[in-house]
Each structure stands twice: as structure tokens, then as C-alpha cells.
Amino acid sequence: MSATTQRLPLGLLALAIGGFGIGLTEFVIMGLLPEVATDFGVTESAAGWLISGYALAVSAGAIGLTAAVTRFNRKHVLTGLMVLFIAGNLTSALAGTYSVMLAGRVVAALSHGAFFGIGAVVAASLVAPARRAAAIAMMFTGLTAANVLGVPFGTFLGQQLGWRSTFWAITGIGVLALIGMATLVPASTSTATAPVSLRHEIQAFAHPQVWFSLLITILGFGGMFGAFTYIAYTLTKVSGFAAGTVPWLLVLFGAGLFIGNSLGGKAADRSVTKTLMVVLAALTAVLVLFALTAPNQVLTIVSLALMGAFGFATVPGLQMRIMQYAGQAPTLASGANIAAFNVGNALGAWVGGVTIAAGLGYTSTLWAGAALSFLGLLVLLAATGHATRRRSPEQTQPAAAAVHAGTAA
């Protein structure tokens, strides 16, 4: 095995560590919100802006910040984004007021979308074309691991030593990821032979399949997240689980995310379109099954794990699809898809909230999620038909074009 072959997985590992820290930053606050609200003397709704403000900043950074850095060396951009991430979490750890804490959350969030958008392009460039989706999945493994291991541990740490200790730990993870990316991600894979202009990157959005991909991401992923947003209410009010068991059930859900992400990446390397069709259909069916059997605790456990698995099995394929059709300009399109994931999160949570407010019960969020996922499947079928009717040499080998873009830009 050559030295180059040996070091590529290490570069992916550095990206995964960065993804772990970012995922931890996004999700751990949910378990620490009461402590943070009490410490700063703010209401629960005000403290909630530490979550919603973060999500809005992710979407802004995924497009705006990515657009601003398209002409720069991608490795340098990633290390710069990790510095921004460290600064945001350090600000949160040291925050003396709620406003400073919120500012730290926003700063950290700005790096989130751009990191995953650009990181997906870099991860794909580190491996052979046949392994590109698996490489993207490995980077997102850090995000899933944050749910399985990081959030429970981070919440426990914050409850035992104070919530600031969790943000100090996340800052340390960011430093580790920064060192890893600076030393292990090969500069040659992300050094442009010529500057890549923003105008060049925007050209990707002239391709209708890029817009189809964004819509599929919003609907398909939004379906899973809409059901997940209110899952604690479903588990306690419908399935009858004690509140104390919910964190452990969420660990099971996180394990499903981890497995689905890995298998989804391997399957997408064989066929992105077929994988997304199967996974979106399966996710729709699982959400329907969950809604019908939620009062049964055994079936609820099975459905919860499957919801996580099929929900996150979409991620590598969804990211691959938009990069394929973006061709020679994948960076901004990849960042836009990360924003689309967050738009899907917001849409799913909003639709679920509407159904609850309408008095349809807590299982209504599962039905709403199934409807969104099914709409995502219908859009995918329409997009596939459109691509078949307008097939061109560029569309028959989109992965090859994206690989060239990843290695030459």
C-alpha cells in the first residue's frame, strides 16, 4: 500500500473529528438548556434562540460564507472554518451574559454549513471515484457519533461540572480537529490550478437537477426531522415510556443514524438514484408503521431505530446527487445542500407543530413526516424522469466531472 493510499483515510478521520465537534455543538445545547437559562436568568423561550439562532446561522453560513471563499484553497478554508468554530465555542464557554452566549453560538454556526459543504467536496477528492459516497459518509460519521456518544456524555459533563465545561470540551475537540486537518488533509487535493470564481460556482444552479436535488433534500430529510423534533412527546405520551428512559431511547435512535449513514454511503457508491428511491420509500413506510404502532413499546423501539437508520441513509446520497449534477462547480452547490438540510429541519418541525396545534395528537407528527418523505420520493421520481429525457454526456458521467472538480479546485 502506497503512502498516499495510507494517508487518505487519515484525512477523512480529521474531517470526521471536525464533524463530531460541530454535531456536538449543535445538539448538546438541547440537554443543557435549563441550566443555561437559569444561569443567565432568561426564560425558556429566550434560551430557545440558542437553538433556533444557531440553525438560522448554519443556513446563512452554508451559502454566504461558502460563496465568499470559493476562490481559496479548500484545505486552508477548512482550517480557517475550524478556527472560527473554536472561537465561537470559546466565546460560549467564557460568556458572561446571554447576548455574548448567543453571539458565540452564531459564530460557531457560521462554520457549520460551510464546513460540511466544502468538506464533502474535499472528502470525495481524497478517494477513488467508486468510493466517493462512502468518503462523504465517513465525514458525516462524526455527526452521527455526536448523537450516539457525544450528546449523552456532553450533557452528563455539563450537569456534573457546569454547562461551561461542555463548551470547554468542545473547544478542545475543535483544536484536535484543526491540528488533524492542518497535518493530515493533503494540500494537493484542494489546491486550485486556477482560481475558482464565484461566477463559475453559480453556474451550477443553471442545471435544473441541482434545484431538484435541493427540493428532494428539503422534503426527504425534513420528513425524518419533523417526526424527530417531537419524538419525546410521542415516546412518553403515546408509547408510555417514562421520561427517564427517553435519553437511552435516543441513543438507540443515534445508533440507527450511525448504521444508516454508513450503509447509505456504500449503497450510494453503487447507485445514487436507486439508493435514494429505496431509502425514501422505506423511510415513508417506517414512519407510517411507527404512527400505527406507537402505543406498542416493542414496535416503537424497532421503529425508532429504523427511522434513524433510513433517515440518515439519505444523507450521503443526497449530498452526492447535487455534487454530481453541479459538475465542475460543486462547492457552492454542496454548501447550498447543507442549507437545504436545515431548511428541511425547520419545515418538518413547523409542519409537525401545526398538526399538534390542530389537535391531531402526537402521532400526527409521524404522519406529517411520512407525507413529506413521500413528497421527496415523488420529486426524485420526477427529477429522474426529467434527467432521462434530457440526458447528455455530462449527465451520464456526473461523478467523473465532480471528481475532477474536487481534485482540481
From the helix content, strand content and strand pairing, which structural class follows?
mainly alpha
Integer average pLDDT = 81
User: How do the SSEs run, as a string of H and E?
Assistant: HHHHHHHHHHHHHHHHH
- CATH class membership of the largest domain: Mainly Alpha
- What characteristic shape results from the CA principal axes? globular
- Sequence stretches where pLDDT stays below 50 over 5 or more residues: 1-8, 189-195, 392-409
Annotated CATH architecture of the largest domain: Up-down Bundle
Cα Rg: 20 Å
CATH superfamily of the largest domain: MFS general substrate transporter like domains
Q: How many strands in all?
A: 0
Major sheet description: none
Termini separation comes to 26 Å
Number of discrete helical segments: 17
Strand content: under 5%
The helix content is: over 70%
Total domain count: 2
CATH topology of the largest domain: the name is Growth Hormone, Chain: A
Oligomer: single chain
